[in-house]
Amino acid sequence: MKAEIYIQSERLVYLQEQLEDQIIILKEADEADQVKISIEIKRDTDLLHIFHSGVKYGLDKMQEVFTKK
């Protein structure tokens, strides 16, 4: 199954770590920093990888908040 979505470019990095070759960039970032991508979902676990990449992004962002001085 293929899913086409828009995602912020800084979040795309996290998805690419999880699903390297399953992501195709369809349109580069626009003025709102949104990138259109296609994700080839091959297994049920790919959905978990997508979820976990979002969690990792959120954890990293919160870590930045607490470590800034």
Q: Any overview of this molecule?
A:
By secondary structure, this protein is an alpha+beta fold. Helices cover 51% and strands 28% of the residues. The chain has one domain. A three-stranded antiparallel β-sheet has the order 1-3-2, covered by helices on one side. A hairpin with a 6-residue loop joins strand 2 and strand 3. The protein is flat. The mean pLDDT is 93.
Major sheet: size, sense and barrel closure? Answer: 3 strands, antiparallel
Global outline: flat
- What fraction of the residues are assigned to beta strands by DSSP? 25-35%
Rg over alpha carbons = 13 Å
Ranges with pLDDT <50 over ≥5 residues? Answer: none
Overall number of domains: 1
Structural category is: alpha+beta
List the helices and strands and how they pair.
Elements: E1 2-8, H1 9-19, E2 23-27, E3 34-40, H2 44-67
Antiparallel strand pairs: 1-3, 2-3
Helix pairs in contact: 1-2
